[in-house]
């Protein structure tokens, strides 16, 4: 069961599916997959770069609500109304949505504006608490509208992954800028507020660190078993220029062991090699890291980051040097793409 005792049936079904899928193939995910690709951005109902490459869409669709507020679009210029539309399409086709939040700094600047005691300031009794509540209200309004549409308007389950990579120093909520006590208080407050005050019962909560070396480090800022459904790892270190697949395998193995000891799900919530300059990266680096250990292979999904342009992209597009290898990857029995998912949206 998810941590939310009142999780909607579809949310329970999603969690159940993720748990069962640990024993099977790994779901492939891509950030902003439907919003744009390397050579296109005009509105399409359902187009993805990897779909153009192999005829199959990702199973997991990553979104980001960074800069949610007065502007119509997020930090990467994805229109929020389109985002909602696509999340609905994803669900209807049996896919899974996960949302991260590159939150602006409540004391000024963007997510990367560091050096302020912002986590403390947005907690209850902090100087910027009201601004935080206002933002959560806005997010709740957005999430409430993520639904199946007519006739039933059932909420579409969302894997919510806020305050990610906190073990690094690049976001204002990162470890050097907030104590474990503050981070945990913020996380718990956010869960309670969205769940109990705003009555959002279609969220699964995903906690993801950047690379860590051991269980103690992974759990140093862990909000607790009652506040987390999925344990994640963001790792760009082990599959880039200084590739070390064995190290990633070891990290995944550790993550799965921690998650399973708590009865939870593990996922490789972000990874990638910018512009994928290695032709056989998908099978020889990524897939190899996941499947060369039976415990590591129990992660539920892997997600690569967005396809912004020819220099900044993490998935192939037609004509890309790694396209052929991606087809092998997507066809592998160890990988699940959208068409392979059954049983989430029929609830
Ligand atoms: C980073 C880059 C940025 C982007 C940010 C949030 O990795 O892709 O261009 O704004 O993620 O999506």
What does this structure look like?
By secondary structure, the protein is α/β, with parallel strands linked by helices. The protein has a single domain (9-340), classed as Glycosidases (TIM Barrel, Alpha-Beta Barrel), CATH 3.20.20.80. It contains 10 helices and 9 strands. The protein has helices spanning 9-21, 49-54, 80-92, 118-122, 129-144, 180-197, 215-219, 245-261, 281-291, 323-331; strands at residues 26-31, 60-64, 96-101, 158-162, 203-209, 230-235, 265-271, 301-304, 335-336. It has an 8-stranded parallel beta barrel with strand order 1-2-3-4-5-6-7-8, surrounded by 4 helices. Helix 6 links the parallel strand 4 (158-162) and strand 5 (203-209). Helix 8 (245-261) crosses helix 9 and helix 9 runs parallel beside helix 10 (323-331). The radius of gyration is 19 Å and the shape is globular. The two termini are 16 Å apart. The model has no long low-confidence stretch (mean pLDDT 97). Bound molecules: beta-D-mannopyranose. Beta-D-mannopyranose (BMA) binds at residues 64, 75-76, 102, 305-306.
How far the N terminus sits from the C terminus, by CA atoms, comes to 16 Å
CATH architecture: Alpha-Beta Barrel
Major sheet: 8 strands, parallel, barrel
Count of domains:
1
Number of strands: 9
Mean pLDDT: 97
User: Which strand order spans the largest sheet, edge to edge or round the barrel?
Assistant: 1-2-3-4-5-6-7-8
CATH fold group: TIM Barrel
Radius of gyration: 19 Å
Please give the count of helices.
10
Order of secondary-structure elements:
HEHEHEHHEHEHEHEHEHE
Helix content: 25-40%
What is the global morphology?
globular
Helix-strand category: alpha/beta
Runs with pLDDT <50, length 5+? none
For this structure, what is the CATH homologous superfamily?
Glycosidases
Strand composition percent: 5-15%
Are any ligands bound, and if so which? beta-D-mannopyranose
CATH class placement: Alpha Beta
């Amino acid at each position: 069961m998810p941590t939310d005792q009142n999780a909607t049936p579809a949310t329970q079904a999603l969690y159940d599916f993720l748990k069962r899928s640990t024993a099977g193939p790994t779901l492939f995910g891509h950030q902003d997959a439907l919003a744009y690709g390397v050579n296109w951005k005009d509105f399409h109902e359902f187009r993805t770069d990897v779909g153009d490459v192999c005829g199959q869409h990702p199973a997991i669709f990553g979104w980001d609500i960074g800069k949610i507020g007065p502007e119509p679009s997020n930090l990467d210029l994805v229109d929020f109304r389109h985002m909602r539309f696509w999340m609905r399409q994803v669900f209807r086709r049996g896919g899974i949505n996960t949302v991260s939040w590159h939150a602006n700094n409540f004391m000024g600047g963007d997510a990367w504006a560091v050096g302020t005691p912002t986590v403390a300031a947005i907690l209850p009794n902090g100087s910027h608490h009201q601004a935080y509540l206002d933002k959560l209200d806005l997010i709740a309004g957005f999430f409430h509208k993520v639904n199946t549409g007519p006739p039933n308007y059932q909420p579409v389950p969302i894997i919510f992954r806020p305050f990610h990579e906190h073990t690094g120093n690049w976001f204002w909520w990162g470890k050097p800028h907030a104590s474990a006590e503050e981070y945990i208080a913020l996380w718990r407050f956010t869960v309670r507020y969205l769940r109990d005050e705003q009555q959002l019962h279609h969220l699964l909560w995903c906690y993801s660190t950047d690379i860590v070396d051991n269980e103690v480090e992974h759990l140093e800022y862990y909000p607790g078993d009652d506040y987390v459904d999925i344990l994640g790892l963001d790792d760009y270190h082990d599959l880039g220029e200084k590739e070390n697949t064995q190290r990633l395998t070891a990290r995944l193995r550790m993550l799965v062991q921690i998650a399973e000891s708590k009865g939870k799900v593990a996922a490789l919530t972000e990874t990638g090699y910018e512009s994928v300059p290695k032709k056989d990266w998908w099978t020889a680096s990524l897939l190899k890291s996941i499947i060369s250990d039976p415990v590591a292979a129990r992660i539920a999904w892997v997600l690569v980051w967005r396809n912004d342009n020819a220099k900044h992209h993490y998935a192939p597009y037609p004509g890309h040097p790694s396209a052929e290898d991606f087809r092998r990857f997507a066809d592998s029995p160890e990988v699940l793409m959208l068409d392979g998912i059954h049983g989430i949206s029929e609830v």
